Amino acid sequence: MKRGGVLALWVIALTVAVAAMPRQLSPPPFKWLPAGADLVLTREMTFENTSGRLGILNADGPVNTKGHVFFQPLGTNSRACVTCHQPANAMSLSVDTIQERWRATNGKDPLFAAIDGSDNPSAPPDRESSHSLLLNRGLFRVGLPWPPVQNPAPEFTIEIVRDPTGVNRDPVWGLKSARPTVSVFRRPRPVANLKYVLAPDNGVFNVKLGVLLDRDPSTGKPVSMNMMADARAGTLAIQAESAYRDHQEGKAQLRQDQLNQIIAFESQVYAAQIYDNSAKDLAEANGPGALGPMNLFREMAGVLNSPAKPVFLFFDEWKNQTEFRQSVARGNDIFLNRTFWVRDVAHINSIGLGNPAKRSCALCHNAVMSGMDRAPGWVDLGTTNFPTWTEPKTWNEAGELPVFKLTCRPEARPHPFLGRTIYTSDPGRALITGKCADIGAITMGQFRGLAARAPYFANGSAKSLIELVDYYDRRFDMRLTAQEKEDLVNFLRVL
Amino acid sequence: MKRLSPVTRVLVVAILGTSLVHAQNLSFVTCPIVRDTKTVPCWLAEYNGEIYYLGNQGGVAQDFYPPQLNHEVLVEGTIAEGPRVCGGAPLRPVKTSVFLEINRACNTILPVEDGIEAPARAPARDPISWVRSDGPSDTTIYFDFDNDFLSLHATTAVQRIAEQFQQTKASAIEVQAFRGSSRLSNGTELLEQAGIAEKRAAKIREILEGLGVPKASVRAIAVTDVRRANGVDDPWSRKVTLSVKK
Fold it and tell me: Which of A82, A238, A305, B213 is the most buried (most CB within 10 A)?
């Protein structure tokens, strides 16, 4: 064969080989990863956001999404797990991304599936207004059975006071439907850094309530009860099954090998901001030990805040560096040491710590590297319950979220700081336990990759980190100065 | 730590009992007061014009669980000798029981004041504890009034009993739960809610079973008799006893 012919064969062979290879992704890779994608996620990836870049670490190595259960549609609505847990958004989903998807697909993306991507599954699915909570606040509908499965004789009754989406009064989906359901609206949690989320508190007890922790039915071991906003699922397997059923509208049951693949992927993925436009490289050698996804991979989970090992370790080396880095270091100090009166927080001030307690942010956000609560972290911070909620001042004003009036039975243990008649936009843990004392209790989330996944709080009420800090400032009369607020925001955004 | 012999234990209990009888005991219901200091806040309570010191802000590993503003508190204590602490006459031992119903009038936070300091943090295990272990097989847990909450030390004690049962291959764990009452210093008698003993028994049973003790091996009973309050050792009447049987 002539030399030219050999070369041509090589070119053809190479072209075929390249075409057959999954696309290797390098930064910046993709912004949106659709369900059913056929790609290889590299071990380390970065994604731009307004503050800098988020880092994703697949600790077990590259992940081929082709045929991978986490990335493939499993149910009946063309969604996959990845639809709501996007790598670019720290394995959660930002409102910016949601709005981009709406624009790019004219609302046809499976993300907007009526079952929970709409304010009310009965609303016209093509209208933007039918998806207002998802588009404006990043909220998905969570429909929970009433009375709770766990407690068929709940301690309180529920009345609907305000139902702007119409779903709670809907004849098919509502509280008075054939399958009585309470719909609340919540943000998707990041599916990353899960060893920290799943690490159970020391021992077998929920120290806050003086009862046993829930257990993993397959292993019998205690679980952290920190994964979901209302702690209704204790394990990744249970969560995956429920997400398959409720969010992907799956009709069968996931097989064990499918569950295993989901769990294996979720257990090895780490997400954290890796570059900040002002602080620059967050993962540099000899930098703060908590930053970047690699440090999350290396550190041990289940460690409680202590002087020897503070929640986000040490930022001392930044105290003499650029102005921005100094601000971050001050923010860390405020987070750890700036005391204020933590007051009227159910499951914090009612569990033996006293009300009020003069402590810092790290009283509740005490788990090293994640900023979650090492004990089961559902607390009524006040974001969902009147009068400290994030919604309009009074319940008869127009608002985006539903409002429920919960009336506790006289013999029930009341909510420690709100009593027996409570107006709430999300009863939280109480929709699972049926307990009055749990009304408004929401499990606190992790602090990582925040810059990639606004808005914040489980109800998406804080559009930015400054709004989040402002809420705490108002709620606890912290009297933060403008500089302190800025320091806290800068600190949070590099995590 | 060296374990006391049964005879010594009896003597200690007798001496403690005698001292309780002769010391001035107080029981009252009031709004708790928080005193801010340069370090940690102190918890105080006023009765008959006198301020009493209850304890400091601490953590869940402490024996003293502070009261809560927005709630009244039942204070049962003995006036201790010695100087005032954080501006109050110290009560020791002291049991504080937060009333569940809300009282918004309970809202006093005193500011930091020169010369009023919080005492150094108490050791995690106070010598007078609300959990008493008499050897590895017998434990008594004392409860707040009208409450079945188990503190960190109480849950640890229940766990130890379950472990003792399993390690010794015992036949049973006997659980006896009691409903108590409290005589206030003004003569009023407070009786715990009906059914509280049953709740305490059920809770301990559930935990023991959750820890692997077979259901048939947990003999839990709620004692129906209520001991008459005397205003002296009433906090010790609200209890659950656990005993591992061979």
Answer: A82
